[in-house]
Amino acid sequence: MAETTINTSDNVEKYGEREIRDAQLITFPNPRPGRRYDVHITLPEFTCKCPFSGYPDFATLYLTYCPDQKVVELKSIKLYINSYRDRYIPHEEVTNQILDDFVAVANPLYARLKADFNPRGNVHTVIEVEYHQEKAS
Description:
Elements: H1 15-21, E1 27-29, E2 39-49, E3 56-66, E4 70-72, H2 74-82, H3 91-106, E5 110-117, E6 126-132
Antiparallel strand pairs: 1-4, 2-3, 3-5, 5-6
């Protein structure tokens, strides 16, 4: 059997770090355009950093959307979400930014993002944002 050498040096970028650094939301054609259906995605390991203290913030994200012409590929969401882990960003801003980026790529009929942050210092924060595609006039 061939021996595999794994470099675990701290100064070498790991393949997962490279994938996260290069993360982009990717879409594919909706297999059922014209049919209204909801996609529910739960991301239980979201993390970012508090811009004031530098402490990590942890949350579960709940994304629900109704696709129009595009569906977002799930691995790309995972990598995109993980790209926030070292960013200093308030709860309110990160929730709105994630929804804005999602809408810009997927252009869903409807999207709702709920960010349920773990309590810290006896404070529990939940941020909910929505998007509705404007109807053509």
